[in-house]
Design a protein that fits this description.
Helix content is about 50%, strand content about 15%. It is an alpha/beta fold. A six-stranded mixed beta sheet has the order 1-2-3-5-7-10, sandwiched between helices. The chain starts with a strand and ends in a 9-residue tail after the last helix.
């Protein structure tokens, strides 16, 4: 990792933290490389079941790609897209803990996660249209798939500033809490996800993603479901219900 991106694993939960609040947690080449490295480690891990992504500081979660490096040619839009694509492609569920305002590519970074938990007082804006940029095509596709074309137009075409209540209303946020509750809420949610049957969670995440993208293969989806039905975890799940105890899933 680097001093501006930290990575840790506690039992089944991995945590990636943007740690450059003085620069609004903007992402340059160094930060993108660190994020991709951590995501690749998570993707191949047999023990990590949930990834939490957050940012240090209470002002800005992430301001997106470093404009300084973009203007200098040290960074390309595709570099940023490759990183958000890698997060979105993870088989495990991902949670974005939005600890402050979110701007530009930081909005897409949050959208690349499965769940978003934000705090009261947060604002969100993508200023591409106000400075003459067309947002990257792969990013536009993610906005439309996650939020629908109408909301995507408000954020990208009209460059609206959305407050926390509106972010919740349009579906950008899944949960909205007071700042003092964010850490506890995210930790509890991550532990809840980590305690579910990994095969079931991964299968349903993959199927939902395929449906949303219009690429569902019913035969492949059927195989995923059949794998869950033949798993040791299903036996454990039924046994735990009968014995009135928490299940201990192994992912097999």
């Amino acid at each position: 990792m680097s001093e501006t991106v930290t990575f840790s694993v506690d039992q089944h939960v991995a945590r990636l933290t943007l740690n450059n609040p003085e620069k609004h947690n903007a992402l340059g080449r160094k930060e993108l490389d660190a994020l991709r490295s951590a995501v690749a480690e998570v993707a191949t891990s047999e023990s990590v079941r949930v990834l939490v992504l957050t940012g240090e500081g209470d002002k800005t979660f992430c301001a997106g790609a470093s404009l300084q490096e973009l203007n200098a040619g040290a960074l390309r839009g595709d570099d940023y897209q490759d990183m958000t694509d890698a997060i979105a492609a993870l088989a495990i569920p991902t949670i974005c803990a939005i600890s402050g305002n979110v701007f530009g590519g930081g909005v897409e970074l949050a959208l690349s996660c499965d769940f978003r938990i934000g705090i009261e007082g947060t604002r969100m804006r993508v200023p591409a249209a106000s400075i003459g940029l067309c947002y990257p095509v792969r990013g536009i596709e993610r906005f439309v798939q996650r939020l629908g074309p109408g909301v995507a137009k408000r954020i990208l075409v009209a460059s609206e500033t959305l407050n926390a209540d509106e972010m919740l209303r349009v579906g950008f946020l899944d949960h909205l809490v007071m700042p003092a509750q964010l850490e506890q809420t995210v930790t509890s949610y991550a532990r809840q996800l980590a305690g579910l049957a990994p095969l079931s969670v991964r299968a349903m995440k993959q199927i939902i993603g395929s449906v949303a993208a219009g690429t569902l293969d019913p035969e492949e989806a059927g195989k995923l479901a059949a794998h869950c039905e033949a798993s040791e975890d299903l036996i454990e799940g039924f046994a735990a219900q009968q014995e009135k105890r928490p299940p201990q899933f192994s992912g097999r």
